[in-house]
Design goal:
The chain is of the alpha/beta class. The protein contains 8 helices and 7 strands, in the order H-E-E-E-H-E-H-E-H-E-E-H-H-H-H.
């Protein structure tokens, strides 16, 4: 009984723990730019700690590229952080030859790895939610890339689909097409009637401006 109560108390304590937060770090990128974690707030972020000497890291890069290209337009960002022991020229060469489409950071002093709880094994991947909460952490290659894809998808803002036309809309549009054109009489007296009246008045030929008026009927 005491063991059960202790177990329940432990689970309750774990349940009420606040979620882990992403550290307030700044990434030094290989292009000389600096990217703060605070500037990524509102996005779903995948932080990947890797090294050019890590076989698994190199093997999983195409999958990271695919995920980034799939979700980047929806508020998703990937940051690849090279470990402190990785030579910067190796990192730069790899990023250029592989055309990595996401920011690549150097961690020359190991401060980024230390801030993330710390990171000691590569690859280590951390998924961060829009509010800066750590959603999940993988040590080693993720066991299921489709599961990771679904987890990213579930934390992104849903895209709005184009408005679909229902039956009522189709009826309205068909009514628009079936509506008859305006009657010519609404534009004024007919041309023969005007000509007849002017003939009775002793005038011949079309009235001034009559060509413009006739063209107006032809265009209705």
């Amino acid at each position: 009984m005491l063991a059960l109560l202790a177990g329940a108390g432990f689970l309750g304590w774990r349940f009420w723990l606040p979620p882990e937060r992403a550290p307030a770090v700044t990434y030094a990128l290989i292009d000389g730019q600096r990217l703060s974690q605070a500037s990524l707030r509102g996005k779903v972020v995948l932080v990947n700690f890797w090294a050019t000497s890590c076989v698994i890291c190199v093997r999983e890069m195409p999958s990271l590229i695919r995920l980034h290209q799939q979700f980047a337009h929806r508020g998703f960002e990937t940051v690849a952080v090279a470990m402190a022991y990785d030579r910067p020229d190796f990192v730069l060469h790899f990023a250029r030859t592989q055309a990595l489409p996401f920011p690549v950071a150097l961690d020359l002093q190991g401060t980024l790895a230390q801030a993330y709880a710390p990171v000691v094994v590569t690859p280590t991947t951390i998924l961060i939610g829009p509010e800066g909460e750590v959603i999940r952490r993988w040590v080693g290659e993720p066991a299921s890339w489709p599961a990771l894809e679904s987890l990213i998808e579930s934390n992104l803002t849903p895209t709005r689909s184009p408005r679909q036309h229902g039956p009522a809309d189709r009826r309205d549009s068909s009514n628009e097409r079936a509506r008859p054109p305006p009657r010519a009489e609404s534009l004024g007296p007919s041309l023969p009637a005007q000509t007849a009246r002017r003939s009775l008045d002793g005038h011949s030929g079309a009235p001034a401006g009559d060509g413009r008026w006739a063209r107006g009927i032809g265009q209705s």
